[in-house]
User: Fold this.
Amino acid sequence: QIAKQASTAVSKAITAGKKNIEVQFPPVPNLDEVRFGTPLNKKFGTDVVAKDLKVVGGYKPGSDVSRYLVSYSNVYWAKKIASATSGGILGGKPVCVLTAEQISFNTVKDLGDLSRSGKLMTQQSRAAGRNGEAVIAINPGGEETWNRIVSAHGSPGAPFVVLNNAYSTTYGLGNQCNFEEAYYLKRISKGWVFRAFPGKWEAYLEKPDGSVELLKSYREKPELREVSALVRDESFKRFAINNDRFSKGFGERL
Assistant:
């Protein structure tokens, strides 16, 4: 579902003339526990990531894909949005994936619509760039570096997508450097913040049974503290301390 939603949002943003785009969501089911190897993360790594990317050796204890699951998962997601980033069958732009994360691309045998791969801000990756090439940059770092990375790797008029940046230097939602938040799904205390281009920003309450309820929509990007307070206060009002964090799928704890 995330792959389809994100691809649709990216495609709509590019069609609307947006070139610099941010896509943000949890790359693995249990992101907070990724170091501990939860059953859901292991299943995702085994049955989805390693299989789809045709990673040499697959997902096994001690393998690169198990030790660096987030890194390989982000390449999997880049593969899933590559067609939308290229403009699909009508666009036809080559799409490369570049990352700052730990990954051995020579173990990945199926990149799908991604035309090439490499590491961000290396001379080799810069030299391999082609005119008109779209770029998906995985976890490029603080947003104060994004425009410099676009200058180093981007092509005039071609889409540049920042995918799943791991941290924010602004402690807010999205970014402050005018990248369109085309698809955004962020866990907050007792709920989620969601936005898919060209839709509104939405605050969702997560209930004790794992279902979610839309509490409020915003025409403009809200402040993180405002949304967090709204969801947290509503959760406490309805459920007190009984709303323990349990959500099927991407929030589930096993």
Remarks:
- The chain has eight helices and nine strands.
